[in-house]
Amino acid sequence: MAMYAAAVDQGTTSSRFMIFDHSGKVVTYDQKEHEQIYPKPGWVEHDPMEIWGAVQSVIAGALAKGAIDPKDIAAVGVTNQRETTVVWNRKTGKPVYNAIVWQDTRTDQICNELAKDGGQDRLRGKVGLPLATYFSGPKVKWILDNVDGARAAADAGDLAFGNIDTWLIWNMTGGVNGGVHVTDVSNASRTMLMNLNTLDWDQEILNLMGIPRSMLPTIRASSDVYGNATGSLAGIPIAGDLGDQQAALFGQTCFSPGEAKNTYGTGCFMLLNTGTKIVPSKSGLLTTLGYKIGKEPAVYALEGSIAITGALVQWLRDNLRMFDYSKHVEDYAAAVPDAGGMYIVPAFSGLFAPYWRSDARGVFVGLTRFINRNHIARAALEATAYQTREVLDAMNNDSGVPLTALKVDGGMVYNNLLMQFQADILGVPVIRPTVAETTSLGAAYAAGLAVGFWDSVEGLRQNWGKDKEWQPSMDPGKRDDLYAGWKKAVTRTFDWV
Q1: Rounded CA gap, 312 and 75, in Å?
Q2: Residue 358 pLDDT
Q3: Which pLDDT belongs to residue 400?
Q4: N or C end of the chain: which has fewer CB within 10 A?
């Protein structure tokens, strides 16, 4: 009998393969970074072939490190950076262009054109999303409009589109030799092409964007057997597929309406389970799919997406050379009691929730001669906490259910200073689970459920454990003053472009 479930976790900066035991503990993993390509200001690309190579490498690496026989793996799930768009030729298996990353803003003119008739929320009733550069649909249109021969090849039925999950599952199940062209409801809900009610591609929107239906993958449940792997995992079912933030919701076992999690990575993403009910947002949040298990009804979520959090720390490290390793930001920040009255609003690619302003750009405000790099480091961490507060306020507003505690995961949750400040600025406890790799775990859970490695979602709840909790300790008056300063700082980013 199989002893493990595994997950390919393809993120914005790296790919991982993680193997879990039945209790949800990490047995072994391997990880590899890939190149970030910036052809022009606001443009962000990845090489899909490099990513596929990295995924093959980490699968082999993890199996070797853990001395794992692939036959002992019950099923593999895939989780991925969402909205990052790949268009490839089905016959050759080669992309027609680099993957256009979720952070990329080149489609702003396409979005503005589409918004001329009906405004930014023109499609929100159907897809739960505003017209924004973030989503895949306009990126597909850009490739078809701008890459030589792409439109003709698409019309001839030779091109396939997918977010990274689709690209990987197609390659993992054989590629040009019978690869399965699928996505799940959570990833499909990020394209701006799927109708939230029907869980199918919306022909009216496809016509509007000029995207042939033949390019699109089949939409499936998040926990379902799509096909069997080839290569080093030959014969193992690929049976789970979730966008990274939905996978974290699943891995945090937020299976009941009203349960929420926040993932701190390149960006920050808070999701609130709203059950089988579609909750339209009045506060700038996204209405999205949480997950769908087999033939059960789909579960929806409200999401607050923040573009730049961990990426701000990377920027201080790589562009300003303030420190050699990202973890050092905490040491610098801890050397001062506060940010000295300064704020950083990292609107590098505009502002996401709850503003959706692609015209915004980043600012440092409140600078005086007193400010040093310790204050800058602290302001960078505080920016993450303030942005999370804005999203939480919007969620409380939309759902009508005040959040009583926040489950957190992702790379930044080991930064104690940030987590304490987060609890302080929210005024609710912040809780880190024992397995913080909840994105990979969620994909493994979805795959394991599909093949009976785990029996039920209730059984998965038994695996969740609390590692650490931070209680708010800030005076409410100080909290309000700091937050008012942040709100003022945000307005300074508007209308820059």
Answers
A1: 36
A2: 85
A3: 81
A4: N
Q: What Rg value do the Cα atoms of the chain yield, rounded?
A: 22
At residue 260, the 3 state secondary structure works out as strand
Residue indicated by tokens 């979720």: 102
Q: Which two tokens stand for residue 58?
A: 């980490």
Mean pLDDT over 298-314 rounds to: 91
- φ, ψ (nearest 5 deg) of residue 129: -130, 150
What distances in angstroms separate CA 81 from CA 148, 351, 460, one per listed residue?
A: 27, 18, 24
Amino acid of residue 91: K
Whose CA is closest to 100, among 133, 75, 72? 133
Cβ atoms of 76 and 237 closer than 8 Å: yes
Q: CA 91: distance to chain centroid?
A: 30
Count of CA atoms in the C-beta half-sphere (13 A) of 263: 30
Residue that has been written with the tokens 């609390």 in this structure = 466
Distances (CA, A) of 320 to 312, 317, 326, 367, 376: 11, 6, 12, 17, 11
Distance from C-alpha of 166 to C-alpha of 217, rounded to nearest angstrom: 7
- Report the distance separating Cα 192 and Cα 144, nearest Å: 16
pTM of the model: 0.87
Runs of H (alpha helix) within 210-340: 244-251, 310-318, 328-334
DSSP single-letter state for residue 231: G
Q: What percent of the chain has pLDDT over 90?
A: 83
206 CB burial (10 A radius; 0-12, 13-18, 19+) = middle
Q: How many CA atoms, within 13 angstroms, populate the side-chain half-sphere of residue 54? A: 22
In this prediction, residue 356 has a pLDDT band, given cuts at 50, 70 and 90, of: confident
Per DSSP bridges, beta strands 73-80 and 4-10 are parallel
Residue 76, SS3? strand
> Which phi and psi angles does 145 have, rounded to 5°?
-80, -25
8 Å CB contact between 389 and 425: yes
First and final C-alpha spacing in the chain: 59
DSSP assignment, residue 257?
T
Of 187, 162, 172, the residue nearest 245 (C-alpha): 187
Question: Cα angle vertex 109, ends 203, 190, to 5°?
Answer: 45
Name the one residue in this structure whose structure tokens are 């009691």: 337
* Burial environment of residue 468 by CB neighbours within 10 A (0 to 12, 13 to 18, 19 or more): middle
| pLDDT, the chain, mean | 94
pLDDT over threshold 80, residue 401: no
Q: Cα 474–480–482 angle (5° rounding)?
A: 80
**Contact indicator for 260, 406 with CB cutoff of 8 Å:** yes
d(Cα 280, Cα 303) in Å, to the nearest integer? 11
Per-residue burial over 261-285, b if 16 or more Cβ lie within 10 Å, else e, is: bbbbbbbbbbbbbbeeeebebebbb
Q: Are 21 and 13 in contact (CB under 8 A)?
A: no
Q: Give residue-wise pLDDT tens across range 117-162.
A: 999 999 999 999 999 999 999 999 999 999 999 999 999 999 999 9
